[in-house]
Design goal:
mainly beta, Immunoglobulin-like, 2 domains, five-stranded antiparallel beta sheet, 2 helices, 43% strand, Bacterial Ig-like domain-containing protein
């Protein structure tokens, strides 16, 4: 519908009507369709579409300029959700008289639950010279500790599940190592069928370890990916309270998984029954 040149302008502002239902809930990755109409008694000059998050940060989706005597307009936008939170979609229209109108809807976007398991006490003992019976190695797949004897003398392919082992070095002190990097000085793993290449990053600035839940696997992955420390196959000089993230070997059954470990105690050095006590939370 168009306006005649002789038609006097009115003081009625445009009317924006978003027809998409308000207060819907979506999941990260979903596509939200925002659509509606604008009716302007005077000629429409344009409209702006924005998204505002719960902190007040706004992002402009579109800024449409309208040319010609247009008094009616429809719109439709498909927006892919990239993060969780509460978002407000706003459409603001302006006419030739400078009159404005706004309509908005609010949506809640929930994160995709990534399952994780927490293991509160994992004890790893230092390997002893000539003794292959110490429970030194750990599999996050089963939350089991293994000795070298158990890995090498079982019909099951246990070595392919081992993510890391513990040792205490003269200069490295308390250390965690991927099997492929495990120092031969402390234990020779050459008989293992698989030596996994787990990678580690120190993330002592990670907050909320105790608050992580069984649905927070995404936060565990983010802790590893976003850490600005170098990824290595051995993490040395560990101390009580240290937190480190790990990524399991991509060739493990099920592919790479991410985990977080907190050191809760270190007993002794490299003698009989000396050990490290850790808490583990890992993606499933």
């Amino acid at each position: 519908m168009s306006c005649d040149d002789d038609t006097d302008p009115t003081t009625d502002a445009p009317v924006v009507s978003i027809t998409t239902a308000d207060n819907q809930t979506f999941t990260v990755g979903d596509t939200i369709t925002v659509e509606g109409t604008i009716e302007a008694p005077n000629e429409l000059t344009g409209y702006v579409v924005t998204i505002t998050d719960s902190t007040g940060n706004s992002t402009e989706v579109d800024n449409v300029g309208v040319s010609g005597p247009i008094t009616s307009e429809s719109f439709a936008y498909e927006i892919i959700t990239e993060s969780a939170g509460v978002f407000t979609f706003t459409v603001e229209a302006t006419d030739t008289e400078g009159l404005m109108s706004v309509d908005s809807i609010m949506v809640t976007v929930e994160k995709v639950a990534v399952p994780a398991m927490r293991y509160s006490q994992v004890l790893l003992f230092v390997p002893l010279q000539g003794d292959t019976s110490t429970e030194t190695f750990y599999s996050s797949s089963s939350n089991e500790t293994y000795s070298r004897d158990e890995v090498e003398n079982t019909p099951d392919p246990v070595s392919s599940t081992i993510d890391f082992g513990y040792y205490y070095g003269a200069t490295d002190n308390a250390s965690i190592s991927a099997p492929v990097n495990y120092p031969t000085l402390f234990s020779d793993l050459s008989a293992w069928g698989t030596l996994n290449a787990t990678m580690f990053k120190l993330v002592n600035d990670f907050e909320g370890f105790d608050e992580l839940t069984e649905n927070d696997g995404d936060l565990i992955e983010a802790a590893y990916v976003s850490a600005d420390t170098e990824a290595t196959g051995i993490i040395t000089n560990l101390e009580v309270g240290n937190i480190f993230a790990f990524m399991t070997d991509e060739n493990k059954d099920g592919g790479s998984k991410y985990g977080l470990v907190r050191v809760t105690s270190i007993t002794g050095t490299f003698n009989q029954d000396d050990q490290i006590d850790i808490e583990v939370i890992v993606q499933q």
